[in-house]
Amino acid sequence: MSFTTRFAPSPTGPLHLGHAYSAILAHDMARARGGRFLLRIEDIDTTRARPQWEHAIYDDLSWLGLTWDAPPIRQSDRIEAYRDALHELWANRHVLFDCTCSRKDILSALGAPQEGAELPFGPDGLIYPGTCRDDREMHEAFPDKTTLRLDMSKAVQMAGGGPFTFQETGTPTDQRAADYTVTGDALIRDVGDIVLSRKDFVGSYHLSVVLDDAYQRITHVVRGADLFDSTKIHVVLQRLLGLPTPVYHHHRLIRDDAGKRLAKRDDARAISKYRADGCSPADIRAMVGLPVASDTATGGGGTV
Ligand code: GLU
Ligand code: ZN
Fold this sequence. Notes:
CATH topology: Rossmann fold
CATH architecture: 3-Layer(aba) Sandwich
Number of strands: 12
Oligomer: single chain
CATH superfamily: HUPs
Bound molecules: glutamic acid, zinc ion
Helix content: 25-40%
Shape: globular
């Protein structure tokens, strides 16, 4: 299958230099390989996504000179696919349970630690202490408007027991390009029972990302190193749902002068701001340390 990659921003604020780096890198990799570059609007969290930010994304990417090879897909149009997968995991695979715990309940089940105490954190936040896991009621119907968690121990079993491996071609911070393997035990211990669907919207980042990457036939996922730790979750979900595992390429993060990585609220680094200040797309490439067209320089270290 030909190289196919994607850029998958959430329309919850302006794209900044970190997004520009990610999008241009993925786009350039696709173009260099005669492959495809696709867009996906990750607007599953309807409490935060706004149409004006989606329009701004198209506008910024076009201004940067990027082109995409199919109409963008939107997660808000894929809710039925997420619901079908959740139904499969609930009714046929029995690897989900409904959870009514508040954050406070979870903290107290973890031993009501004092402020500042060591809490068990995984790539998806606090590692769930298991409170509701054994209370799963055998509902006939798939429960709507409820938090659904993946029973990681059952999921590992149903996914073949592991170990789970993926190919990494990027160089995420302190990692090297290699094949990465995670054991079932490590998933149970270090990730735990993650949320796959929320009370206020169907699905979750981890569920939708694996379904959408398969739906868009993504062969290479190019994204920031901050998502490297989530990849093991994606691989176990792919095994569970019978989906292919793409090759992953996690890239360095663009940092500000203080070494902090850029966040959504870094409006000062918004692409639109640089544009308004008279910068060119070539200036943006240079600022994030990417080669400018017909230029072989690789630029600086990506500090802006
Ligand atoms: N929507 C995610 C973000 O804005 C990217 C998810 C991905 O590339 O897997 O950070
Ligand atoms: Zn619970």
